């Protein structure tokens, strides 16, 4: 799958003018809810959507502009796309990469194998998933120590 959307459905939008969808008339004022899960699992756009396959976005070793960018569905739609979300994602990734994220160690000093289960509902997220964040450098350790709790 290109990405697992956190929200299966986004905030409803009100149509400003009459519209037609697959033969159905949607009058102005109708509330329409985008279905991100369906968009990101469209097999005509993303073959085998449940398979992790970054190569689906490449053609001859370069990003294929013909393949729909999943960010366009994950961070909103049209005029309401959350433009700073991509930057926030990269900042968060940078913070996480300053740590080694490891399996937690049990009382017997053996790493605990995670069992990933997802909650269903409006917001999709993993159930409790334990891990250990180990700072990669003294700079990271100092940064953590300088933050007021």
TrEMBL record:
Cofactor(s) needed for function: heme
SUPFAM superfamilies: Cytochrome P450 (SSF48264)
InterPro entries with a match to the protein in the record: Cyt_P450, Cyt_P450_sf, Cytochrome_P450_fung
Pfam families tied to this protein: p450 (PF00067)
Molecular-function GO terms, alphabetical: heme binding; iron ion binding; monooxygenase activity; oxidoreductase activity, acting on paired donors, with incorporation or reduction of molecular oxygen
Key words, A-Z: Heme, Iron, Metal-binding, Monooxygenase, Oxidoreductase
Sequence similarity: Belongs to the cytochrome P450 family.
Descriptive protein name: Cytochrome P450
Taxon lineage: Eukaryota, Fungi, Dikarya, Basidiomycota, Agaricomycotina
């Amino acid at each position: 799958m290109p990405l697992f959307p956190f929200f299966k459905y986004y905030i409803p939008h009100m149509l400003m003018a009459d519209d037609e969808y697959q033969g159905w008339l949607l009058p102005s004022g109708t509330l329409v809810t985008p279905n991100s899960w369906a968009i990101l699992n469209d097999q005509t756009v993303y073959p085998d959507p449940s398979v992790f396959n970054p190569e689906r976005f490449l053609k001859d070793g370069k990003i294929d502009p013909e393949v729909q960018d999943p960010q366009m569905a994950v961070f909103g739609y049209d005029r309401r796309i959350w433009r700073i979300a991509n930057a926030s994602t990269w900042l968060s990734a940078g913070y996480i990469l300053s740590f080694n994220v490891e399996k937690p160690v049990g009382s017997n000093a053996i790493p605990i194998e995670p069992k990933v289960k997802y909650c269903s509902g409006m917001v999709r997220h993993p159930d409790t998933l334990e891990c250990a964040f180990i700072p990669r450098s003294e700079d990271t350790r100092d940064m953590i120590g300088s933050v007021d709790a």
